[in-house]
Amino acid sequence: MEFINKPNFEHSFFNDIVRINYNCEAAPQVINDFGYSYIMIRYGYFEARNNQGEYIAIPRIFTKCTGDFFSVKAATNSSWISIELPNGAFHNITKLITKNQRNKLIDLYDYIPAEILDTLYVALENENEIEKITALVDKSLESYYSNWMVPLDSQPMVDYIFNKKGLLETIELSEKFPFSSRTIERIFHKEVGASPYRFICLVRFNHIIRELLENKYDSIDSLTKDYEYFDQSHFEKDFKKFMGQGVKQYKDDFNPLLTKALSRVYHETN
């Protein structure tokens, strides 16, 4: 598997762009959610299953919101390009109630003319340089960015959660922002794709799993305490919720896709 990205990637809209090329068939690998929206472009054959083990149809160009873990199996000479967007971009692109689209891959052809996407698809097929991929995507889609970047009520709260690494209680959001707890729930349902509590847990989990990957901790107990888990069993519960497996199974399994994804710098909001 060839994992191509650009360190210190910068863009006015995208958080990151990654290309993954499979030179041989890859067994199913679990990938968890990182709390962002995505546009993804598929080349070749993949099989994907959701967190219930059900097959998911994969459009060749699709957008995805925050959801649950899933598994993906790739055929030889397949590849995909993953364009990571701010969390609220999915809602701005589709105008859909985001929580109702969890674990769905929404065909971008429903929102952008086929001639634009067809041209982009052909242009990107054999391009492996991130700078050139970015330029080609901008050329095709830049006219849409202003609408996709429209400020949402959820965005300051999402940024706050990311900046605090998920180390907060949900009540802090209604204390910090001019919304009641009930209104915040509705905003997250519409724009984020997860409840405030689940999103906070997801962000915290993604920070702790990076430290687990880097092996820069004295013990699991000390690591979980640093991230305000009650105990190791509380952490195990989150691990199974967001990864579909226990800590030991994760550490025993070979999962280069997740390892590469986690090794990138977690996007910092401003």
Automatic annotation (TrEMBL):
SMART domains membership: HTH_ARAC (SM00342)
Gene3D superfamilies: Homeodomain-like
Span of domain HTH araC/xylS-type: 172-253
Keyword Cell membrane in annotation: no
Transmembrane intervals: none
InterPro entries referenced in this protein's UniProt entry, alphabetically: HTH_AraC (IPR018060)
Highest taxon listed in the record's lineage: Bacteria
Keywords: DNA-binding
Pfam families: HTH_18 (PF12833)
GO MF entry, a single one: sequence-specific DNA binding
PANTHER family listed in its UniProt record: ARAC-FAMILY TRANSCRIPTIONAL REGULATOR, HTH-TYPE TRANSCRIPTIONAL REGULATOR EXSA
UniProt-recorded name of the protein: Helix-turn-helix domain-containing protein
Source organism of this protein record: Bizionia echini
